[in-house]
């Protein structure tokens, strides 16, 4: 099935909350169709917000970046893990308290903006360590953070994304750097602020004025899980990190409400699908044969995907997919799955 009763997906919501990397842009270039999709939302007078785990830019910088790409955005529409982390520290520490910042200059600026004092060495006796992604973060920064945490500083991670998208494929993200400290300290951060924690989405949802909010993301482990924790519907777009193999293997807390190849799914009822579907619908049938699910039939590939989700999510382990017939083989291939005839 397509979206509910053939209606446009976006018509069921008063606010659309976008992830950025992998949804709106990839590094510094808009993803095809993203500019047009946001422009249509604006033209229809719909509220939008942007929630990102990226702690290397301030909200104003992200808004400027989006505007420069043709996506007009205001700083107050942008929610970053850097700003949220700084606000959390402001609420926990006395004014002017030293905070050791591991990350980009944007994170230091957010800490300074809430009345705290950014420092870079453990011997400055920081009350807290805040760790976010920064392309220049190195061993010396992590060593200072390790010493500070061992000395009693609160340890805040802006996010724990293992990777971040790039034109060359996934690259190490802040979660990989957090893992270095986790290994050295043999403990977890005191607080993780960004997705999949629910704080960013809960803050965004309050802007829906009592209506419904839809989260649009490309990552099951951050965007979709975060939306579920916040009690919000979600749309997974296949333009970023998570692909169909990840979707079929997803546990209950990482399963989206809808799936689309791209942001056209917001407006075209045939470009998005609710998942899971039925194992027999839309001209497709899926049969489980001892750990292998066989897809047969013909129809819209997204309906095939919904049927595969139904079978995979009811299985005890991620199944192997086998296509039966040329149409099924084309559908399976289009989703990057092995398993042709």
Secondary structure layout plus pairing:
Blueprint: E1 15-18, E2 25-26, E3 29-30, H1 34-43, E4 47-52, H2 59-68, E5 78-80, H3 81-92, E6 98-102, H4 105-113, E7 117-119, E8 128-131, H5 139-150, E9 154-157, E10 163-164, E11 171-172, H6 174-185, E12 191-192, H7 199-205, E13 213-217, H8 220-229, E14 233-237, H9 244-248, E15 258-260, E16 272-274, E17 280-281, E18 284-289, E19 292-297, H10 301-314, E20 320-324, H11 326-334
Parallel strand pairs: 1-4, 1-13, 4-5, 6-7, 6-8, 8-9, 9-12, 13-14, 14-15, 19-20
Antiparallel strand pairs: 2-3, 10-11, 15-16, 17-18, 18-19
What number of structural domains do the residues give? 3
Which range does the strand content fall in?
15-25%
Tell me, briefly, the overall form.
Answer: globular
What is the name of the CATH architecture of the largest domain? Answer: 3-Layer(aba) Sandwich
Return the average pLDDT rounded to an integer.
93
Structural summary, described in words:
With 341 residues, this protein is an alpha/beta fold. The chain folds into 3 domains: 4-53 and 196-273, Rossmann fold (3-Layer(aba) Sandwich); 87-190, HAD superfamily/HAD-like (Rossmann fold, 3-Layer(aba) Sandwich); 276-334, no CATH class. Helices cover 32% and strands 22% of the residues. The protein is built from 11 helices and 20 strands. The strands form 5 sheets. It has a 7-stranded mixed sheet, with helices on both faces. Strands 7-6-8-9-12 form a 5-stranded parallel sheet, sandwiched between helices. It has a 4-stranded mixed sheet with strand order 17-18-19-20, with helices on one face. Helix 5 packs across helix 6 (174-185). 49% of the residues are buried. The model has no long low-confidence stretch (mean pLDDT 93).
């Amino acid at each position: 099935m397509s979206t509910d009763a053939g209606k446009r997906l976006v018509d069921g919501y008063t606010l659309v909350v976008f992830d950025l990397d992998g949804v709106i842009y990839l590094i510094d270039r808009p993803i095809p169709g993203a500019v047009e999709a946001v422009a249509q939302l604006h033209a229809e007078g719909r509220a939008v917000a942007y929630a990102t785990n990226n702690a290397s830019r301030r909200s104003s910088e992200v808004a400027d970046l989006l505007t420069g790409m043709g996506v007009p955005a205001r700083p107050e529409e942008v929610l970053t893990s850097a700003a949220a982390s700084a606000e959390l520290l402001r609420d926990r520490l006395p004014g002017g308290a030293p905070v050791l910042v591991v990350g980009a200059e944007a994170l230091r600026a957010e800490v300074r903006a809430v009345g705290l004092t950014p420092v870079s060495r453990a011997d400055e006796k920081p009350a807290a360590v805040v760790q976010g992604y920064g392309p220049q973060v190195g061993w010396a920064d992590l060593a200072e953070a390790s010493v500070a945490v061992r000395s009693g500083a609160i340890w805040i991670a802006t996010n724990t994304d293992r990777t971040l998208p790039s034109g060359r494929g996934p690259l190490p993200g802040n979660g990989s750097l957090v893992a270095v400290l986790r290994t050295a300290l043999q403990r977890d951060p005191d607080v993780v602020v960004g997705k999949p924690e629910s704080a960013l989405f809960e803050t965004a949802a309050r802007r829906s004025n009592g209506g419904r909010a839809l989260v649009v993301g490309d990552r099951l482990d951050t965007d979709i899980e975060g939306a579920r924790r916040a009690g919000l519907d979600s749309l997974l777009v296949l333009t970023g990190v998570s692909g169909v193999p990840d979707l079929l293997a997803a546990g209950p807390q990482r399963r989206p409400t809808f799936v689309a190849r791209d942001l056209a799914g917001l407006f075209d009822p045939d470009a998005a699908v609710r998942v899971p579907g039925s194992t027999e619908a839309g001209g497709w049938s899926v049969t489980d044969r001892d750990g292998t699910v066989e897809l047969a039939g013909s129809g819209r590939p997204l309906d095939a995907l919904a049927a595969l989700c139904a079978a995979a999510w009811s299985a005890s382990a991620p199944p192997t997919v086998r296509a039966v017939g040329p149409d099924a083989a084309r559908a399976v291939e289009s989703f990057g799955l092995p398993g042709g005839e």
